[in-house]
Amino acid sequence: MKKYYKENNLIFIDLDGTLLKDNGKISVLDKLRLKKIQEKNHVCINTGKSFINAKKIQEIIKNNKEIVSYSGHVVSKKEGDSYKHILKKINSEIIFEISDYLLKNRFLNNI
User: Fold this and answer.
1) Helix or strand or coil: residue 28?
2) pTM (2 decimals)?
3) How far apart are CA 4 and CA 8, in angstroms?
4) Which strands, in side-by-side order, build the sheet including 67-69?
5) CB neighbour burial string for 26-41, b if at least 16 within 10 angstroms, e if fewer
């Protein structure tokens, strides 16, 4: 498989129109690619969907990482068999601080 990504990154995956096709399903090829990417990277679901809907997709792709749902308003982390909502309603000032940090530390090429 051709490598389209670097290793040891934090990767956010959008669902609708990106990972999910028009029929709401994930292609077999995308599942294989995602499995390979998850071996050496931290992959988080990022979606406008509700937490419950995002969690269903997370189970399909066998990802036990954080979920960013409700268009960024809720961040949930898996702890054992349940999830803890670790962040709700992100303040725009915090977003700018995070963006600056990521850019300064070369996690992002551009925004």
Assistant:
1) helix
2) 0.65
3) 13
4) 10-14, 42-46, 67-69, 74-79, 82-88
5) beeebeebbeebbeeb
Tokens of 25: 């399903």
- Alpha carbon distances (Å) from 100 to 22, 45, 49, 93, 97: 34, 22, 26, 11, 5
Q: Which helix H or strand E contains 36, and what residues bound it?
A: helix 28-40
Radius of gyration of the chain (CA): 14
CB distance 12 to 18 below 8 Å: no
- Output the CA–CA distances (angstroms, integers) from residue 90 to 5, 40, 66, 73, 93, in the order listed: 28, 28, 15, 6, 8
What residue type is assigned to position 14 of the chain? D
Q: What is the pLDDT of residues 18-52, one digit of tens each?
A: 888 888 888 999 889 888 888 888 888 889 888 88
Both tokens of residue 58? 């997370």
CA distance 44 to 34: 11
